[in-house]
Design brief:
- The protein is built from 22 helices and 24 strands.
- The radius of gyration is 27 Å and the shape is globular.
- Strands 12, 15, 17, 18, 19, 21, 22 and 23 form an 8-stranded mixed β-sheet that branches. A 6-stranded parallel β-sheet has the order 10-6-5-4-1-11, with helices on both faces.
- About 4% of the residues have low confidence.
- Helix content is 44%, strand content 19%.
- With 591 residues, the protein is α/β, with parallel strands linked by helices.
- Helix 4 links the parallel strand 4 and strand 5.
Length: 591
């Protein structure tokens, strides 16, 4: 028996050692594969910007499982950072090794304001080198980026969208009633319609009014920009949208919307020419923009450090998830930047529909404290509304794009209960409590009149604070803020007229202004807040270096399923400890 146990434990030890060695060898092999051959830029290379990716302001850290899947060849890329893409385009414009830019594919994300910033970077590149753009068919979103290219191609089989904009919110009110879920709300502001999808089956008239105005502002900017690029009148594009909507390839060329109708092989021959090759050559020098963005530029001897901090996603109480703005997390990062003497100014990039009022106030407090020590400049992206505006309003200067969605100065509370649903399935609750207000957050029953009254009072108080803060920070009369508040959303160009923002411009303009305030216009570099390194995560990221994968385009069924999923995610993000939220009523989708 003694020999048996000795043999048994020896075998276990051997298996453990063998397993450990196998693990080390396996990941070591992947590391060699992943790191073999650092990317270089060939001479006269074409910079290939494949738009088949998702776009965000923040460079989201992928989970370890996502990186492993990407290394193994499964799963989609996790998207690209807008600032990184813009920086790479600007750097490539002055890089003697880059001969041209090639745009192709279909962008999966990014709002109108983000597209404008990206388009401006493409136009800066075009001022120095040719830009060629090709697609099987052009959507409004992608054509907005490509309309000003040196040469715009379309496949003979392709079509082009020139059909205006639409917004189609989803409503669950009747479904909730059918299945026994009751939603009670407290809110301030006739335009504060964030609760509408959960209590009704259609838009209210005030909500319809604000969406219509916002769509007209964004559509007007699209028409003006594309018309200028294609040397047409905006009225011509409006007529196409009203009468045709979609045009085929030949019609698009006759109308002057594209320069050439050509199959992909002919486009490749054109790319070979700009790269100094002949049509008979099998290939031409090229490098993907995502790869180029990962190659460090020349080191510059600069002294002044500016920090860019990105607030992207729903504002939630606590730390938040990867796609959320955690009130505690972002305020902690602001505090670190405030106390870092190397940082001379902070640019807060906001791309958020808002969310928790408590978390928004936590972040705003840190903005105010940081502003006392060093300049804080706000750069608004696609969304900076409600709680997103709350955290922006005390910036030294606020920049927004004409198509930024902002404002929505209003507050609401939303309280669901499942009493009817549960009772119909034989589930009941009973209660013992020591005071009438002992259990106001329960999901097991509707709120009584006293509870609703107290909760409405809380919403009213926070709305009053919101109005007061905007009036104080923007140097506006309180009556004027009350007039333009009411939960109404505004485009960036309208917000400028109303005094809610200071200047139209993107992240680049905000950085230049921050540098000016720090007295370092020509002598600064940009860095984000320093974080503790995660060795294992960095190791996994290294394995996937350069192995980006295209995102599959959504079909109509998948898009509908995604809409359901997004609404559930929004409900799960409602975690404010007081149950009060400053959130925009919708995320506009360009359809």
């Amino acid at each position: 028996m003694k020999d048996f146990f000795k043999t048994f434990f020896a075998t276990l030890l051997a298996l453990a050692v063998a397993g450990g060695l196998t693990f080390v060898l396996f990941f070591g092999l992947l590391a060699v594969i992943g790191s073999s051959g650092k990317p270089t830029v060939p001479g006269k290379a074409v910079l290939v910007f494949d738009l088949d990716t998702s776009l965000s302001d923040a460079e989201r850290e992928p989970d370890p499982s996502e990186v492993v899947n990407e290394v193994m060849g499964i799963g989609n890329a996790h998207g690209q950072s807008l600032p990184a893409m813009i920086e790479a385009l600007d750097r490539a414009a002055s890089d003697s090794r880059i001969s041209a830019l090639f745009l192709t594919g279909s962008l999966q994300g990014g709002g109108p304001a983000q597209l404008r910033e990206l388009r401006e970077a493409i136009q800066r590149f075009k001022a120095k080198k040719p830009v060629l753009a090709y697609n099987l068919g052009w959507s409004k979103r992608d054509f907005y980026l490509a309309a000003g290219a040196t040469t715009v191609f379309i496949n003979p089989f392709g079509e082009m969208e020139v059909n205006g904009l639409a917004s189609e919110p989803m409503f669950f009110g009747e479904a909730f009633k059918k299945y026994g879920v009751e939603v009670q709300v407290t809110r301030v502001g006739k335009y504060k319609s964030a609760v509408e999808p959960f209590i009704t089956d259609r838009m209210s008239e005030p909500n319809r009014e604000q969406i219509q105005k916002l769509l007209e502002d964004i559509w007007g900017e699209w028409k003006d920009t594309v018309a200028k690029d294609r040397k047409k009148a905006p009225a011509d594009l409006q007529a196409l949208a009203d009468e045709k909507g979609i045009v085929d390839a030949d019609e698009a060329r006759k109308l002057g919307l594209v320069d050439r109708v050509a199959p992909y092989d002919e486009v490749l021959n054109e790319l070979k020419k700009v790269a100094g090759k002949d049509a008979k050559d099998k290939d031409f020098p090229q490098i993907a923009l995502t790869t180029y963005a990962g190659i460090p530029g020349d080191a510059k001897s600069v002294k002044t450090r500016l920090a860019v901090l990105v607030a992207e996603g729903e504002i939630v109480d606590g730390e938040g998830k990867a796609n959320q703005v955690g009130g505690e997390k972002l305020s902690r990062e602001l505090r670190r930047l405030r106390m870092d003497e190397r940082v001379k100014a902070v640019v807060l990039r906001v791309n958020s529909p808002g969310g928790s009022a408590s978390a928004s106030e936590l972040i705003q407090r840190e903005v105010v404290l940081t502003k006392k020590v060093k300049p804080v400049v706000i750069s608004m992206g696609h969304l900076a509304a409600s709680g997103g505006y709350w955290i922006s309003t005390y910036g030294d200067r606020i920049f927004a794009e004409p198509t930024t969605i902002t404002g929505s100065i209003g507050v609401f509370g939303m309280f669901a209960n499942v009493k009817k649903l549960a009772n119909e399935h034989g589930i009941t609750w009973d209660s013992v409590q020591t005071a009438k207000m002992a259990n106001p957050t329960t999901l097991t029953r509707p709120k009584n009149d006293l509870e609703l009254s107290r909760l409405q009072g809380l919403v009213d108080r926070i709305y009053e604070q919101f109005i007061t803060k905007v009036a104080d920070s923007r140097k506006l009369k309180k009556e004027a803020v009350q007039e333009i508040a009411q939960g109404r959303v505004w485009s960036g160009q309208e917000a400028l007229k109303l005094g809610l923002v200071d200047e139209l411009g993107g992240l680049e303009a905000a950085l230049k202004h921050a540098a000016k305030m720090a007295k370092a216009e020509n002598d600064f570099y940009v860095a984000g807040p320093e974080r503790e390194p995660d060795a294992f995560r960095e190791f996994l990221k290294g394995l996937g270096q350069g192995k980006s994968r295209k995102l599959a385009k959504q079909g109509p069924v998948e898009a509908l399923t995604e809409s359901f999923k997004l609404q559930l995610e929004r409900l799960s993000a409602l975690n404010d400890p007081q149950g009060v939220y400053a959130r925009i009523p919708f995320e506009i989708d360009l359809k």
